[in-house]
Amino acid sequence: MIAEDSVLLRVGVQRLLADEGIETVAAVEDGGALLAAVEEHRPDLALVDVRMPPTFTDEGLRAAIEARRRVPGLPVLVLSQYVEERYAVELLAGGANGVGYLLKERVADVSEFVAAVRRVAGGGTSIDHEVMMQLMVRARRNPVDSLTQREREVLGLMAEGMSNGAIAASLVVSDGAVEKHVGNIFAKLGLEPSTSEHRRVRAVLAYLNLG
């Protein structure tokens, strides 16, 4: 489902997703309608704008947080023109799985946007690099001081939702090197073995000083 007050963007995103075989069960324009639609349809993903009526401040993000409270585990991907730090922290810290925060300009890259939609709907994370950097500046202390520069680069790309293969291609290193770095990251952050995806999410949250 889509919650976006701009008719042009709402319809445009709906058509873009339809072209990729993704059905929109509801498209609404305010937080109240978002909550009603979430409870009625139980969608695989809620795509939510931050600023919606009536005040156009943070209604969408607050509604997204409430939606995850009412429907535990609801995947939410937030789209915003701005980084709303306080509520971004609350959204991301409220549950490790199925959350994302992208700036609206990323929609222009259709393949990356659709990949983020599918990733978050599948229980993963997709955090915009600019959002990540602002949250890091906000943090009072960095919980990843023990990581090397390369390990921080790898963890930063993990935060953007990249797979090991994509990270290897981005850094022009082997898959094995990335796997080694990821293993070191888990060890240094004290993340005990569980499912691989869950540890990746927990590592990202530690990187953002949310975990």
Automatic annotation (TrEMBL):
GO function terms (MF aspect): DNA binding
SUPFAM superfamilies: C-terminal effector domain of the bipartite response regulators, CheY-like
Organism this protein belongs to: Saccharothrix yanglingensis
SMART domains per record: HTH_LUXR (SM00421), REC (SM00448)
PANTHER family: TRANSCRIPTIONAL REGULATORY PROTEIN NARL-RELATED, TWO-COMPONENT RESPONSE REGULATOR
UniProt domain HTH luxR-type: residue ranges: 140-211
InterPro entries assigned: CheY-like_superfamily, NreC/VraR/RcsB-like_REC, Sig_transdc_resp-reg_C-effctor, Sig_transdc_resp-reg_receiver, Tscrpt_reg_LuxR_C, WalR-like
Membrane-spanning segments: none
All residue ranges annotated as the Response regulatory domain in the record: 1-119
UniProt keyword annotations, A-Z: DNA-binding, Phosphoprotein, Transcription, Transcription regulation
Residue numbers carrying 4-aspartylphosphate: D49
Gene3D superfamilies from the UniProt entry: 3.40.50.2300
Name this protein carries in UniProt: DNA-binding response regulator
